[in-house]
Amino acid sequence: MSNGLPGLLRKSLKDIPVKGFIIPAGWTVMLVTATSHLNSDIFNDPFEFNPWRWKDINADVVSYNFMPFGRGVRQCPGADYTKAVMATFLHVLLTKYRYKCCFKFF
Ligand code: HEM
Hints:
- There is one protein chain.
- By secondary structure, the chain is an alpha+beta fold.
- The protein has a domain at 8-75.
- It is 23% helix and 13% strand.
- The chain is built from two helices and four strands; from the N terminus they run ββββαα.
- The strands form two sheets. A two-stranded antiparallel sheet has the order 1-4. Strands 2-3 form a two-stranded antiparallel ribbon.
- A hairpin with a 2-residue loop joins strand 2 and strand 3.
- The longest helix is centred in the last third of the chain and has 17 residues, at 79-95.
- It binds protoporphyrin IX containing FE.
- Protoporphyrin IX containing FE (HEM) binds at residues 4-5, 8-9, 68-70, 74, 76-78, 81-82.
């Protein structure tokens, strides 16, 4: 339901009409990327915690609705590198260490 990225910032270069309103030239606009996760046209029960929500959705639809690395011409060039680092980190963390529960119940 969330997104590591709080939002994408852009500056309007000209007046932009949106649904009866005008975003004046020079304003800063913030796209809150996680709001795309709450679109009930795309997701069933968008307010449910469901890590599998992406599993059966077309890759094109995912790319417009999950934007941890931004989107378009300013998309993060470090995305693939970051994914490789995260996969390596998780692999080492889960395969090279042993874990035990430290919670004490009663
Ligand atoms: C978890 C790690 C990272 C996240 C979540 C992340 C996220 C992002 C996002 C959302 C943007 C687009 C900002 C926008 O459109 O306004 C961006 C841009 C950028 N990122 Fe990352 N990034 C990550 C790691 C990295 C790494 C490791 C590098 C370099 C090695 C990198 C280099 C850049 C650069 C240079 C841009 C600017 C691209 C441009 O404006 O043309 N990022 N990043």
